[in-house]
Amino acid sequence: MTIVQIPGRFNGPPNSGNGGYVAGRLAEHRDESAVTVMLRNPAPLDTPLRLDDGKLFDGERLIAESRAGAFERDVPGSVPREVAEVAAGSYETNDMFAHCFVCGNARGDGLRIEPGPVREGVVAAPWTPDETLPIDAALLWAALDCPGGWSVPGMLEQPALLGSMTAAVFGLPEAGEPCVVVGESHGVQGRKLYSATAVYGADERLLGRAEHIWIRLK
């Protein structure tokens, strides 16, 4: 058994952990190159959580569970940094996501990954990690999260939350390295929405990739 705590800085929706970051914290404790994490309930912030046999609990309440993962789609292709910068200029959000650690534009201590449309079903954003946080695999999982959500249709009008995420991290960027995050929409089935993301380094090396299932809120 291991105790995991999600610091308050790493919120997604108000008062709960960013799904990608929470998933990344579980993935740190697995040996597989690709890991799938299913999010069952919001992860409370600044609270000791129990990680036991790949499952994260708040008391007896199941927060998330992990298993070996496999990808079903091709990795999203890279987008030039200058194209991503232009796309980010048209980024839109709402009150629900404005303070998210990853994509929130109303806070100065987040990742500020603000994806905008490149073409139909594809979004991109520049990202330059800084020295205020450890640049580790969990941070890459966080960066791979939100751009997938912003690639799916109707996120502003009918918000969805992360249900599951499969990801693999191949390398870590340096502090100050100009990276690009790309998100692709891969269809809708009822309340489920599917997406994929990738993070590329300054030399266009693939740092990480992910696939997601989002659940539309009722």
Automatic annotation (TrEMBL):
It comes from the Bacteria. InterPro entries: HotDog_dom_sf (IPR029069). This is Thioesterase-like superfamily protein. It comes from Nocardia amikacinitolerans.
